[in-house]
Amino acid sequence: MSLAATGALLGLVAGIGLVIVAIRSPRARRIRYADRIEPYLRDTPAPSRLLDDSAAHAARRSARVAPTPLAAVEALARPFLEDAARRLDRFLGGRAGLVRRLTQAGGRTSVEEFRTQQVILAVAGGLVGAVLLVPRAVIGVGPPPVVGVALIVAGVAGGVVGREWWLTRAIRAREDRMLMEFPTIAELLALAVTAGESPVGALERVARLTHGELGYELRLALADARAGATLVQALEGIATRTTLGSLARFVDGMAVAIERGTPLADVLRAQAVDVREAGRRQLLESGGRKEIAMMVPVVFLVLPTTVIFAFYPALVSFTFFAQ
């Protein structure tokens, strides 16, 4: 690398640093309304634990976290990440759909946190693409600059799309766990109702005894009911937070049984049987797909190797006698 190129690179880095310092200086940085009123809201009382137990537990856990050595770096980088996350959110759009998908994934990540994670992964992907250009800049060996720029763009896009793919995978895994928990919870509800519990009492008992994803949804429904919604509306909120048809049918059956006074235990047992049958069919279908996928290594790896071991000695013998 020539002296002029080194000087130009150092000057470019220094110029970018000065521009960032000038933009993020206190005089140039715009103060948000939330930043101005935040000091006056620090002493507000904590919300009721009855409305959201998970939020209170998360707040207590975060309060007990000890400061790490990277806390200063995190505090310095947070304004840049928040700025980039807001710009990315405006560029991609679809905030309502993203909120719905985050809710389906459990609602433990906000939109801002998700966009910040996308920004971090995009920067990491861009750095991976830029690392491939280092040999080209140092020793002149490597991909041409056009390919390097394409790799950087592909790394940035891959980071953004990769986080979206991971969210889709988390939603699918969570719904699979809910389907596995559903028959047991439905039978527990039926048992509690048969023993004389009211629908609300049965839901409270089962939600207290279970700790899975469906139990978490039941606790959210009970929190909505305590906040003023009717039990039917709270149960319908479970169906809106998931894409499972069997769970939506279960909620509709419970709502109809509560409104019309029909025997709830029979409805719950029938729903549990239906979900078990659906899970059995899904397992058979998955086994059939896996069986077809297992044919790929057999046909393309095992079979050619067997043919080679069978015919190679004969081929060597024919070649030897032909000579």
From TrEMBL:
Presence of keyword Iron: no
Its membrane topology: Multi-pass membrane protein
InterPro entries: T2SS_GspF_dom
Pfam family, any one: T2SSF
Start and end residues of each Type II secretion system protein GspF domain: 186-309
This protein's UniProt keywords: Cell membrane, Membrane, Transmembrane, Transmembrane helix
GO cellular component: plasma membrane
Main location: membrane
Subcellular localization, as worded in the UniProt entry: Cell membrane
Transmembrane residue ranges: 6-23, 119-139, 145-167, 298-322
Protein name: Type II secretion system F domain protein
Endoplasmic reticulum as UniProt keyword: no
Domain of life according to the entry: Bacteria
